[in-house]
Write a structure and sequence with these properties.
The chain has 15 helices and ten strands. The chain is α/β, with parallel strands linked by helices. It folds into three domains: about 150 residues, 2-Layer Sandwich (Beta Polymerase, domain 2), CATH 3.30.460; about 140 residues, Rossmann fold, CATH 3.40.50.720; about 70 residues. The strands form two sheets. A six-stranded parallel sheet has the order 7-6-5-8-9-10. The chain has a four-stranded antiparallel sheet with strand order 2-3-1-4, with helices on both faces. The protein starts with a strand and ends in a 7-residue tail after the last helix. InterPro entries: 4pyrrol_synth_GluRdtase (IPR000343), 4pyrrol_synth_GluRdtase_dimer (IPR015896), 4pyrrol_synth_GluRdtase_N (IPR015895), GluRdtase_dimer_dom_sf (IPR036453), GluRdtase_N_sf (IPR036343), NAD(P)-bd_dom_sf (IPR036291), Shikm_DH/Glu-tRNA_Rdtase (IPR006151).
Length: about 425
């Protein structure tokens, strides 16, 4: 399975927010999909990643399982048919391209805000869920740890992660721009997950300091409010507080909480002017934008204005790609070595079988001490015979020429052909 890694991806690059919303999966959905893929396909090394900007499935299999996996996503999301979403998925069936894509996604090269570090935390969670489901094999474990190590190299050796450029920072910049003419604008932050907490942290560096936090688990809102000099309210007061706010930011998934047009219309003149939806699925009705003096923004509307930080990051991209290319080359060499291991083991087993046969034939009349001596001598001979082909194969792997040697070894010793 080492050379059969694939990726099925749907992202902001090819799919509008409504489509991304339709296939987005929360933690339970991702875990359920892992179970379904395990039950209904022969895929191995499976990882499911779903964020506000992408839903992706990485897997190893001999065949392209895109159609089957899309059907399983549809079942998990309750679709009757898949034709509405199928065309938005991209199938990466080339092993090396799929591996590179996961590197690029994990390190933020594919993020809407380039270099956004939040994606790596989301990838780590996806990897943990794969491990929990028993879907992460030796290949995926090695690949993910290689990516994590490469991320540290990029962090330490480049300016790619320097500066304040992220979705959460962009959200604060957007709110600052929208409220420029207001005196002491009131902001209501709903939800204190990772992105909500990051937004509040960034408001701590902003001139806007009238921030109210609402969360279903009140102690989490209170904790964050104390850390960011904000105010926490109880969840049951969220609607009342909304009518006092100028800006509402929501990071709560729309299947848990939803602000509808009718809800806002009831507030009349007290309704907030601006709504910023960072959720997936969305939790703020886009139709609110049709009400007088109300505007709705979502993750696709947010564009980072931190030009200095982004300029540094863009300038660092060639260096980042060079570091990734080195990591990819090392990982490819390891993959080739993994592919040759079964053949080497078979070679050693075949020689051991011959050794045992010959020992059984000629040591019957030997004493115990003599048998032990012959056993030790023949074992050492076998190990030395195996060592040279192993070293040659390893060197051939580094040159990318191991296939011919493996075929020769298999032919000479009648070894079983291994899957690529």
């Amino acid at each position: 399975m080492q050379n059969q890694f694939k990726a099925l991806t749907l992202s902001y690059k090819q799919a509008p927010i409504a489509i991304r919303e339709a296939v987005s999966l929360n933690e339970i959905g991702c875990r359920n999909l892992l179970d379904k893929i395990s039950e209904f396909t022969d895929a191995q090394d499976v990882m499911v990643l779903s964020t506000c900007n992408r839903t992706e499935v990485y897997y190893s299999a001999t065949q392209d399982l895109s159609r089957e996996i899309i059907k399983l996503i549809a079942i998990e999301k309750g679709f009757i048919a898949t034709k509405e979403i199928t065309s938005y998925f991209q199938h990466i069936t080339d092993h090396e391209q799929a591996v590179q894509h996961l590197f690029y996604v994990s390190l933020g090269l594919e993020s809407q805000v380039v270099g956004d570090m939040q994606i790596l935390n989301q990838v780590k969670k996806a990897y943990q869920w794969a491990a929990d489901a028993g879907m992460a094999g030796t290949f995926l474990h090695r690949l993910m740890h290689t990516i994590f190590y490469t991320n540290k190299q990029v962090f330490n050796q480049t300016a790619f992660f320097d500066g304040a450029a992220s979705v959460s920072y962009a959200t604060v910049e957007l709110v600052e721009e929208l409220t420029r003419g207001m005196t002491d604008p009131r902001v209501l932050m709903i939800g204190v997950g990772e992105i909500g907490a990051n937004v509040c942290d960034n408001f701590g560096k902003s001139k806007i300091n009238n921030i109210t936090i609402a969360n279903r688990t009140h102690h989490k809102a209170l904790e964050l409010a104390q850390q960011t000099n904000a105010r926490a309210i109880y969840w049951e007061n969220v609607w009342e507080e909304m009518s006092n706010a100028d800006v509402v930011i929501s990071s709560v998934p729309g299947d848990c909480f939803f602000i509808g047009q009718a809800d806002v219309a009831k507030m009349g003149e007290n309704a907030p002017q601006f709504f910023v939806d960072l959720s997936m699925p969305r939790s703020i009705d886009a139709a609110i934008g049709n009400l007088p003096n109300a505007k709705v923004y979502n993750v696709d509307n947010i564009r980072n204005r931190a030009t200095e930080a982004l300029t540094m990051r863009m300038a660092a991209i060639p260096q980042v790609k060079e570091i990734i290319a080195e990591a990819l080359a090392e990982f490819a060499a390891w993959t080739r070595e993994m592919a040759m291991s079964p053949a080497l083991q078979q070679f050693k087993s075949r020689l051991e079988e011959i050794r045992q046969q010959e020992l059984a034939r000629y040591t019957k009349k030997l004493g115990d001490e003599q048998k032990e001596l012959v056993e030790a001598i023949t074992k050492n001979i076998l190990n030395k015979i195996v060592k040279l082909p192993a070293l040659e194969l390893k060197a051939a792997c580094q040159r990318g020429e191991s296939e011919a040697l493996l075929e020769g070894l298999s032919a000479l010793f009648n070894l079983e052909k291994q899957e690529a």
